[in-house]
Write a structure and sequence with these properties.
173 residues; mainly beta; 6-stranded antiparallel β-barrel; globular
């Protein structure tokens, strides 16, 4: 239903979420698929709302997923309709339980507004996701730290807070 188009081909594997740590519930989840199901570290994980994260570690029957909200999660992304790469980084959970990330290294001519927000999507430059999977919405960009590029908050899908099932993208050989 996400209408994926990419030169890299993936086989989708559905997995149930089996554990979510109370102390780091916004950083990682555990799924009921492991090495005996073909899982490997680095595989991309999505839901019907967009990017969820990537497999961080694998056991024989389960895998730990690093969520997109984790500050150590980074990936190449694009704004929908623009081919220039930007950096996405997880940023945790904002007040009220809203999952957020950061769009970094954004060209100065992109100007989303609350009235006309722009969607941040996955890039096939990341190699673990096909191009076009939603990451989130950007409503405002300010000057970045260096002054060469812009940066801004990315509002992520609220469904990240209550995942029960995900899809692992297994690259075809």
């Amino acid at each position: 239903s996400l209408n994926l188009g990419s030169s890299q081909q993936f086989d989708p594997i559905i997995a149930r979420v089996s554990h979510r740590s109370l102390s780091g519930w916004w950083q990682k989840i555990t799924i009921r698929k492991g090495s005996s199901h073909g899982m490997k570290p680095g595989f991309g994980v999505i839901s019907n709302k967009g990017v969820v994260g990537r497999i961080k570690s694998v056991g024989s029957l389960s895998s730990e997923i690093e969520l997109i909200t984790n500050p150590s999660f980074r990936m190449v992304a694009h704004f929908a309709g623009d081919d220039r790469p930007v950096t996405f980084q997880g940023s945790g959970i904002a007040l009220g339980g809203t999952p957020v990330g950061l769009a970094l290294d954004v060209p100065h001519d992109l100007t989303p507004t609350p009235e006309k927000p722009q969607t941040l999507i996955s890039s096939d430059l990341s190699s673990i996701f096909p191009r076009g999977i939603p990451l989130g919405i950007v409503q405002y960009l300010g000057d970045g730290d260096e002054g060469l590029f812009k940066s801004g908050n990315v509002s992520l899908a609220l469904s990240l807070n209550r995942l029960m099932e995900v899809t692992v993208l297994v690259p075809r050989q």
